[in-house]
From TrEMBL:
Keywords: Signal
Top-rank taxon: Bacteria
Designated name of the protein: Lysozyme inhibitor LprI family protein
Signal peptide: 1-26
Annotated PANTHER family: PERIPLASMIC PROTEIN, PERIPLASMIC PROTEIN-RELATED
Lysozyme inhibitor LprI-like N-terminal domain mapped to chain residues: 38-112
Family matches, as Gene3D superfamilies: 1.20.1270.180
Lineage, highest ranks first: Bacteria, Pseudomonadati, Pseudomonadota, Alphaproteobacteria, Rhodospirillales
Pfam short name (any one): LprI
């Protein structure tokens, strides 16, 4: 599990599912304690991240070189915004709200899938790729 969050630094990593309700919780089968919650949310995040990578890859197949560069800039900006919204650092500890991360990732998947449908239906709208 620690290897998933190498980028958070060498400090102790604490995963926190701050929101106890929500969609991610509904997808888990009867967690018994906070450790079960973290495990469950981690699985959901890994699944959502895989779906995100798939959606991103599908969209890039339809884009020109310049459009891919625009999409990449948008993706990096989205990652910074997600990280700012769903994580925080206190001293040497890093906290990640996995429910937030799952929700934000699912929203991004929907965004990428919408762009893919636009590209397939007509012409890709380059102006939206940087969002």
């Amino acid at each position: 599990m620690m290897s998933l969050f190498k980028g958070l630094g060498a400090a102790a990593i604490v995963l926190a599912a701050i929101t106890w309700g929500g969609q991610a919780k509904a997808d888990c089968e009867d967690p018994k304690n906070a450790f079960d919650d973290v495990y469950c949310y981690s699985k959901l995040y890994i699944e959502a991240d895989g779906d995100l990578n798939k959606a991103y890859g599908e969209l890039t197949k339809l884009l020109s070189k310049d459009e891919k560069a625009t999409l990449k800039k948008g993706e990096l900006a989205w990652m910074r915004a997600r990280n700012g919204k769903c994580s925080k650092q206190e001293g040497d500890d890093n906290f990640v709200d996995l429910d937030c991360a799952v929700e934000e990732t699912r929203h991004r998947i929907a965004f990428l899938e919408e762009r893919t449908q636009e590209c397939k239906a007509s012409k890709c709208q380059s102006s939206k790729l940087g969002d």
